[in-house]
Amino acid sequence: MDLETAETAADPDELRDRLPPAPGEWTRTADTTGTVEYRLPSDESPCTAAKLTVRPELFTERAVRLDKTVDCSSVGTDRFDTVEDVVAVVERELAHVLRGLDDAPEGEAAAPADS
Questions:
Q1: Alpha-carbon separation of residue 64 from 23, 54, 68, 93, 109 (angstroms)
Q2: Closest-CA residue to 56 (of 18, 3, 110)
Q3: Phi and psi dihedrals of 94, rounded to 5?
Q4: pLDDT digits over 39-67, tens only?
């Protein structure tokens, strides 16, 4: 299946354009399929400390898929009916992790995400 031309519930261009920029230490990448990745680097692991991957959902009736990763492990996948719903969750997740980093005592790493 050619992902660039596959019919998806969420328009890849709209999804890519509506998702927020990367705040703080997060980085954001996007490709032509509508996949957007947010990565938080780790000084302690070859993996990212945290990663959110948002993409159009190709295999269910839902519009968008959100995969969450902490260190090298998947911590869950959520699916959403609308782009608006996933944008709100992504904004909340990104801010939640940054708040956890800001609240961590000097020299102590906060857990990247707990959801």
A1: 21, 7, 13, 16, 31
A2: 3
A3: -60, -45
A4: 999 888 888 899 999 999 988 889 999 99
